[in-house]
UniProtKB/TrEMBL annotation:
The keyword Chaperone does not apply. Transmembrane segments: none annotated. This is Cytochrome c553. InterPro entries: Cyt_c-like_dom, Cyt_c-like_dom_sf, Cytochrome_c_Oxidase_Subunit. PANTHER family: BLL4483 PROTEIN, CBB3-TYPE CYTOCHROME C OXIDASE SUBUNIT FIXP. It comes from the Bacteria. It comes from Aquabacter spiritensis. Coiled coil: none annotated. Residues 1-23 form the signal peptide. The keyword Magnesium does not apply. Keywords: Heme, Iron, Metal-binding, Signal.
Amino acid sequence: MKRAILPLLALGTALIMAGPAVSQTALPGPTTPAAQTPADRADRRADLVHGRQIAITGGRHQDAVACARCHGADGAGDSSGAFPRLADQSAWYLYKTLQDYAGGLRPNPVMAPVARALAEDELIAVSTYYAAANAAPAAPPAPADVGLLQIGGAISARGLPEQGVPACAGCHGENGVGKAPFYPFIAGQSAAYLAFQLQQWKRGVRGGDPQNVMALIAQAMTDEQIQAVSVFLANVRGREITPDAGAFRPAHAVGTSGTPWTAGRLPGADGPGGPLGAPAPRQP
């Protein structure tokens, strides 16, 4: 669905729209999910009900924790950077992220046990629920120097070709709206969260992205450049953001085999050497 974007600054808009994205790393394109049948739509309605229950009260397992305690029932997250915004993401991306936490691709002492406590049907349901939560309020704009926003906007739109860094917009779309289902929505996430994730890649302790490209990008950036692009993207706002309908059935419409994430291993970035396929979440 068409997304209308309202960046904080007119200058940021000009920077994003100016010129083609720099592409120094060939990435596989997203796979278009199969068309939904009436049965698929019925399953999605059931997932929304089930997913809301998991978000509010937790899953069936005794160790399950309600997502809303940290991310909010509407998926808005918070501005501290500890709990990211889940609303506006595609269901498949949320589903895959939970798998990454469970399998160690994204080491996190809080999220790992939460993800492992969810059964497969619960992963699907709660991912579908938060993908449909597209009315969460945006966080307040992050305070920022205009010069820092200019630098961040240029990196987002054009990259840093002299450092081998492609434009953020090449994969995450103009103004960070994402390209469902594989490339996440990053506009409006807190600057602290975005910067922390880039630093995790820079240090080689996070995986889960196509071909480990984000580690290569982050390692080529200075800390100042990471901060600039994080602050810029945190200040981008979407006037209308509706996830693509085809992204609502993460396991069934898109699947996990044959995607960029399951093609091999990420050296030094996949926890205790676990494969990208990741161990299955613990069943109740």
